[in-house]
TrEMBL record:
<feature type="binding site">
    <location>
        <begin position="87"/>
        <end position="88"/>
    </location>
    <ligand>
        <name>NADP(+)</name>
    </ligand>
</feature>
<dbReference type="Pfam" id="PF02781">
    <property type="entry name" value="G6PD_C"/>
</dbReference>
<feature type="binding site">
    <location>
        <position position="322"/>
    </location>
    <ligand>
        <name>substrate</name>
    </ligand>
</feature>
<dbReference type="InterPro" id="IPR001282">
    <property type="entry name" value="G6P_DH"/>
</dbReference>
<feature type="binding site">
    <location>
        <position position="142"/>
    </location>
    <ligand>
        <name>NADP(+)</name>
    </ligand>
</feature>
<feature type="binding site">
    <location>
        <position position="172"/>
    </location>
    <ligand>
        <name>substrate</name>
    </ligand>
</feature>
<feature type="binding site">
    <location>
        <position position="45"/>
    </location>
    <ligand>
        <name>NADP(+)</name>
    </ligand>
</feature>
<dbReference type="GO" id="GO:0006006">
    <property type="term" value="P:glucose metabolic process"/>
</dbReference>
<dbReference type="GO" id="GO:0005829">
    <property type="term" value="C:cytosol"/>
</dbReference>
<feature type="active site" description="Proton acceptor">
    <location>
        <position position="234"/>
    </location>
</feature>
<dbReference type="GO" id="GO:0009051">
    <property type="term" value="P:pentose-phosphate shunt, oxidative branch"/>
</dbReference>
<keyword id="KW-0521">NADP</keyword>
<keyword id="KW-0119">Carbohydrate metabolism</keyword>
<feature type="binding site">
    <location>
        <position position="176"/>
    </location>
    <ligand>
        <name>substrate</name>
    </ligand>
</feature>
<dbReference type="InterPro" id="IPR036291">
    <property type="entry name" value="NAD(P)-bd_dom_sf"/>
</dbReference>
<feature type="binding site">
    <location>
        <position position="210"/>
    </location>
    <ligand>
        <name>substrate</name>
    </ligand>
</feature>
<dbReference type="GO" id="GO:0004345">
    <property type="term" value="F:glucose-6-phosphate dehydrogenase activity"/>
</dbReference>
Amino acid sequence: MNKEQTFTIFGGTGDLTFRKLIPAFYNMAAADNEQLNGQIVIIGRRDYTSEAYRKLAGEWVEKFARLSYREEFYKELAERIVYYRMDFTDEEEYKGLDEFYRASGAGGHIFYFAVAPRFFGTIVKGLQKVEGAGSGKVVIEKPFGENLEAAEELNIMMEAFFQPDHIYRIDHYLGKEMVRNIQTIRFANPIFSNIWDAEHIECVQISALEEVGVETRGGYYDHSGALKDMMQNHLFQIITIVAMERPQGPGVEEMHQEQMKVLETLAMPDDAAGSAVLGQYVGYRSEQAVAPHSATETYAALRLFVENDRWRGMPFYIRTGKKLMKREMQVAIVFKSSVPGVPQNILNIKIQPTEGVYLQFNIKRPGELDEIIQAKMDFCQSCSYINQMNTPEAYERLLGACIRGERSWFSQWDQVETSWKYVDALRERYVSQRLPVYAYEPGDTGPAEADLMLERYGHTWFD
Ligand code: BG6
């Protein structure tokens, strides 16, 4: 075991750890990925022995890991897992953690805060009692605060203890295979890169639809809503990747600069009523831990613009929602018609559940009639068994990147800050203009108003 590397998870008995982190560690071990080879310290309040925890975690691995469960691989991982019981909200208990680390020869710390952001402050204070913790890395989950002000406070506090370039703000959408493919599809293909602008594109549509509701996360979600839970982070990241200029080099700074330029020019028309639709699924207010009169949105659709020379005047439509008819995430590029009346070319980058690329273009109907029909080419990347097994999952990929110290696919503070400014302003406008939150039926496509918003501008959602 490599004692030079210790990976500690705060919130080690939570959903995220069981569903995503431990399975990601298992996939790394099973894929013989040497990057994570040190001790894994699981911190939780519950009374497990390491042995009992390993057994339980093994069951989650069987259910959720990408690679099939093999006893010998899990054994190799399980031997490195240690359960350490403590109340992480009690600063005094960190002295014991320090002693535990010393006794086990731990070092090269990576801390994962798999807990709500309100606990970050206490953990950071507690870690001041742990030797070597401040020079370690830390991975934090979104949401980074609840609004701009809270996010700023959180950031100051984190940066006062950890080095800024040791803070990894995870956005798991950036680890998805097809999100990473957007750049290649665009820049490596002149047929697309040469016409990737408002002159040739009619609109871009980014959809992240979910079939599930809030399930057991009502307490968190009711204070968050779709704008903060999905738009402010995941979908804004995707807009910046679709709209950015080609980075000047392969490094983190180059990509980041281009993403920031997009975020800084992102604009929504003043008329919020015509450019934003919020919705709530019927039955949401009866979900566990949701306020009975909650006005929290479980659906949001926005019409945005990127005010630069490449994109001025062309709408980016983005939408996300829970309890919809299907789970589907895609980026559809709708090109302008060559001549009025001729159907548009559409490039659809399919992110999940199917990964692939769909292209719709015009051909002549076979036979004597000189009529245009649409050809549809549908490349399915995830249909191949081999591809599926080889593609690392988002968390697996991002944890590996953090261990290697690669930061390009993590959110940077200024991105988070700018996104918060945007979402806070939108929310204020929504409240001050007293705009409604429309009801929609579970299993539907979302509120009809979201379709009307596009129709008003001569567009329809691409399905
Ligand atoms: C999370 C949100 O960040 O992403 C959840 O908090 C959402 O509400 C989830 O369900 C969706 O992730 P994925 O990978 O299933 O699209």
